[in-house]
Amino acid sequence: MPQYEAGTFDVIVVGAGHAGAEAALASARMGAKTLVLTMNLDMIAFMPCNPSIGGPAKGIVVREIDALGGAMGRVIDKTHIQMRMLNTAKGPAVRALRAQADKVLYQQEMKRLMEEEKNLTLHQGIAEKLVVEDGKVTGLITQVGGIYRAKSVVITTGTFLRGEIIIGDLRYSSGPNNQQPSIKLAENLEELGFETVRFKTGTPPRVNSNSIDYSKTEIQPGDEEPRAFSYETTEFIMDQLPCWLTYTNEKTHQIIDENLHLSPMYSGMIKGTGPRYCPSIEDKVVRFNDKPRHQIFLEPEGRNTREVYVQGLSTSLPEHVQRKLLESIPGLEKAEMMRAGYAIEYDAIVPTQLWPTLESKQLENLYTAGQINGTSGYEEAAGQGLMAGINAAAKVLGKEEVILSRSDAYIGVLIDDLVTKGTNEPYRLLTSRAEYRLLLRHDNADMRLTELGHKIGMISDERYAKFLAKKDRIEVEIKRLRGMMIKPNDITQQLIRDAGGSELKDGIRAADLLKRPEMTYDMIAQLTASEVELEDEVKEQVEIHIKYEGYIEKSLQQVAKLKKMEDKKIPENIDYHSISGLATEARGKLAEVRPLSIAQASRISGVNPADISILLVYIEQGRIAKIPS
Amino acid sequence: MEFDTIAAISTPSGEGAIAIVRLSGPEAIGIADKLFRAPSGKQLATQPTHTIHYGHLADPWTEEVVEEVMVSFMKAPKTFTREDVIEINCHGGIVSVNRVLALVLRAGARLAEPGEFTKRAFLNGRIDLSQAEAVMDLIRAKTDRAMDVALNQMEGRLSKLIGTLRQALLESIAQMEVNIDYPEYDDVEEMTRPIMLEKALWVRSEIDKLLQTSSQGKILREGLSTVIVGRPNVGKSSLLNSLVQENKAIVTEIAGTTRDIIEEYVNVRGVPLRLVDTAGIRETEDIVERIGVERSRKVLKEADLILYVLNYSEALTEEDERLFEAVRDMDYIVVINKTDLPQKIDLDYVQQLAGDKLLVTTSLIEEEGIDQLEEAIAELFFEGQIEAGDMTYVSNARHIALLHQAHQTISDAIEAADLDVPVDMIQIDVTRTWEILGEIIGDTADDGLLNQLFSQFCLGK
Questions:
Q1: Among A1, A166, B5, B412, which residue is least crowded by beta carbons within 10 Å?
Q2: ipTM > 0.95 (yes/no)
Q3: Are strands A170-173 and A164-167 parallel, antiparallel or unpaired?
Q4: Where do transmembrane segments lie in this chain (chain A) (predicted)?
């Protein structure tokens, strides 16, 4: 194949899934001349698995992406068919928004945003080989011989790297949904010395809505209250579509038992490691065989299609068994299967080969993001894509790198986990992975990240000004409630009685009254007339801030300690093998992960406090040695 | 964790008229002010640096006075570690100094690792480069020993109990996490405040029990309660005097129903012994005679260790055999005294009666055999596993401090549950308790929760 010079860019993004789209948009937004290369322009931001965005932890990631100027929140706000706030009966730290997406509209809207972004060029093509000079990536070559030059390259190939679809005993080379796999690039990465692992994930069958008997299922409607992910969204979609709930039963499980020998998971045909977070129905039935039924959610894939996603029935059993399974489930007895479920195996790179900027340690200027880094989930991919795009552009533009801490964002937790601990299964974010979940809330993502987003050029001045005004209103209101006394008059006592609390004996500060569990901001507002009408988001923040002050304060103290350890930087050129005091295991782990700070070093499993002490002493020794006395 | 406030006893334990507990770190002054009560009511924080102040230490939770002290107050940077440093001078002796240390740890300091003050001095540029290697060696060597100790304790009763508590907490935490991360998952009970509260109360009462009865805790607070028994004139008071002289005892008079029972504390190779009824031994030589059979049985029963003295130069009497019967199920050491006189006792028969208990022969008059006895005591206490010395105190005090922390966090959870705080926020303190308990038994693997989650529940789409 003759080669030709196809163009020069600051940043090239390979892939335009959820990671690639955010990476490309962020890079362009930062001011870098960016090319996004995808195998198929019709597959931008495609959802190969369930038509849903958000949920616990993940929904907060979407808010964080938005606060940093990313696209996912804005796009889903325009293209969802349903939204629900989850965990509303619990505390504010774990509330999370989840949307059902119109898959096709989502793709179209994302594509439109990318097309309209200045500095961003979209091109359909298949990257086959990286151009490497002096240990640095300087571009790539496509299948048709185009040589694209760039200062940084971001690879977001999802499950395409040496992808293989498996259904029953059928196995063939393929990307998701029968897209072309990416084989040459996988080989190239291997040649360049990247360590890879084989992961597996799967998807359930889809059925035609017209063939479902919904009378045998339970309706799952969206919230009536308007909801949005993005802080920019002002128009809300009120016309929502419901999902439906049904269950598997003894018969379903019996079919699985009888056909287990046909399952590639159990015949040994699948070698890749699957996520515990997203088991196939075979897995569920085998591992929890005393459970009489499993939930099956029927989720519409969009407004202009009758295709319905059968959530809960992820499987790689042969197609004829899948048909039998569907027939056994109430409501799906006559369901027309439009697509069969399948398992997919793919290469992922071992993520401890990356810096916390998502830049490769061995190949400068190369970044990776999304499923290639061993994660699962659209939101996890998008969060990484955003950070890889920001950092790739920052490097090109000579700006400071951007690393989110575990106390800044779930995205920080995600990336730190990946590059510090690695993962031996597809990684999913869970609220329990965050040490400071009370600080990493849905409601305050803007308070945590807008400042940073603006500083790096991802958030416009206009949006930033709005943010500052909101922040100011929150602070003023908190101050007002802290200063204002409430008298124990009839109105007050009545209101407290109605709320089920005990009457006041003396006057009390408004903020202290709000701290009582039965009191809400709106009740306090009735007693402390203010001329300013505040929006709901401000009220929410004021209420959370005052009510949970003690808890928040405790978390902040822990964070202050963490920050001190993060400020203790480890020199990049440190030679762990020359530090005699370190335990052998710690030495190996530290040399592999090459942590940037003492805080990160202390999170590596196998590195104990004594090793950290020795490291501190060693670094200090080096520092003193460098200062001529 | 680095950069927090550390504390340790910085004088050799159990010796000297005074002992010093030293604190270093950003919260040193704050912690001291929490505990220190000057007669004038002044706060240390407002005093000029490098001054010394007289007063008392009080338990801030009960306002009970713990010790009479002199407190040295030194602000950074002109201190040994270049951090804020507080030195509490208290009465010498294991019990008082450990009490002060325990109080300081409860008030928020962390027990210093071996060599940590020196390490901080170095990190803050206080000592020179040539000492760095030595500091690193010290950390390594002492930590390896500490890890051996931790491993030993892992097998013990304490670690089993804590393991049980942790598992109970973990199940609740996992259930809560499922409620949060899989809100639609229907096969799990919704974690509620009453369930969480019930479990938290149970865990707290278990921690209470541990703090009160765990041998480590009790011994640190009170010493190993030790009774010397034997027929008249076998050498009980000589044994007492030998132990006391050799180990510089502190005599205390404790309040109680019998005000005349005097106890003396001695430190025998790292084991703090509380010698019970020393006055009785000195005066009448016989505990049974002096306080009656019932009381003496009770004293024997409550003892952690019995030193049973026999006369080498007399044949075993019926009374001796009765005493063997009385101490049968207890921890005791047989001390066969007066080897300077001709042997009349049948050693084989004594050994037969004593079973697997230790026999030590001494001549207290000739000052022989006391070393072997002390070794036997240390061996019995440490089950021959742990070298006696400061490390034992370190790990003990560390456990107690952690148990107090766990007690605090679980109490926070209980208080929150009473206040109708959302259950996922109560869980924050429950999780913290689980982590702290994990530190005690050295289990800090952080994938425990996820493993529990996905083995206990069938999750996922």
A1: A1
A2: no
A3: antiparallel
A4: none
- SS3 state at A215: helix
The confidence score (pLDDT) of residue B402 equals 82
Q: Exposed, middle or buried by CB within 10 Å (0-12, 13-18, 19+), for B209? A: exposed
In this prediction the pTM is: 0.79
- Rounded to whole angstroms, the Cα distance separating B135 from A618 reads 10
Cα of A10 vs its chain's centroid, Å: 26
Q: If DSSP codes are grouped into helix, strand and coil, which group holds residue A370?
A: helix
Q: 3-class SS at A66?
A: helix
**Chain A residues inside the 8 Å CB shell of B116:** 613
Choose among A278, A431, A518: nearest Cβ to B177: A431
Whether residue B458 and residue A561 make contact (CB cut-off 8 A), yes or no, is no
Interface of B with A in 109-168 (CB under 8 A): 113, 116, 119, 122-123, 125, 129, 132, 135-137, 139-140, 143
* Nearest-CA distance B100 → chain A (Å): 26
H-helix or E-strand spanning residue A99? strand A96-101
Distance CA A30, CA A11 (A): 11
Q: Which residues pair with A53 in a beta bridge?
A: A99
- Using CA atoms, how far apart are residues A522 and A526, in angstroms rounded to an integer? 6
Q: Residue A19 and residue A21: Cα distance in Å, rounded?
A: 6
Q: Which residues pair with B54 in a beta bridge?
A: B70
Read off the pLDDT of residues A88-99 as tens digits, 9 standing for 90 and up: 989 888 999 999
DSSP state of A401: P
Measured in angstroms, the CA of A620 and the nearest CA of chain B are apart by 6
Q: Is the Cβ pair B136, A581 closer than 8 Å?
A: yes
Q: Are B191 and B179 in contact (CB under 8 A)?
A: yes
Interface probe for A, chosen from B144, B411, B434, B461 (most Cβ of A below 10 Å), is B461
Q: Where are the alpha helices (DSSP H) in B182-277?
A: 193-213, 215-222, 236-247
**Chain-centre distance for alpha carbon A27:** 18
Tell me whether B418 touches chain A (CB under 8 Å): no
Report the gap between the CA of B431 and the closest CA in chain A (Å): 10
The verdict on B322 touching A (C-beta cutoff 8 Å) is no
pLDDT tens for A51-102 read 999 999 999 999 999 999 999 999 999 999 999 999 998 988 899 999 999 9
Whether B422 and chain A come into contact, CB under 8 Å, resolves to: yes
Percent of chain B exceeding pLDDT 90 equals 21
Strands B262-268 and B85-91: unpaired
B residues 176-205 lying closer than 8 A (beta carbon) to A = 177, 179-187
Confidence of residue B240 (pLDDT cuts 50, 70, 90): confident
Write the Ramachandran bin of B244: left for phi over 0, alpha for psi from -120 to 50, otherwise beta.
alpha
B83 touches chain A (CB under 8 A): no
Q: Check the annotation: does A103 bind a ligand.
A: no
pLDDT at A265 over 60: yes
Residue B72: the pLDDT is: 93
Structure tokens at B65: 């006075």
For B230-331, strand residue ranges (E) read 250-253, 262-268, 271-275, 305-311
Decide: A78 and A56 in contact? Cβ < 8 Å: no
Our separate counts of H helices and E strands in chain A read: 20, 22
Report d(CA A236, CA B57) in Å as an integer. 63
Tokens describing residue A143: 């299948």
Whether the CB-CB separation of B14 and B248 falls below 8 Å is answered with yes
Kindly determine whether residue B458 and residue A612, on different chains, have CB atoms separated by under 8 Å: no
Per-residue pLDDT reduced to its tens digit, A306-318: 999 999 999 999 9
Measured between alpha carbons, how far is A438 from A433 in angstroms, rounded to an integer?
Answer: 12
Which helix or strand (DSSP H or E) is residue A139 part of?
Answer: strand A136-142
Query: What span, in angstroms and rounded, lies between the C-alpha atoms of A198 and A159?
Result: 10
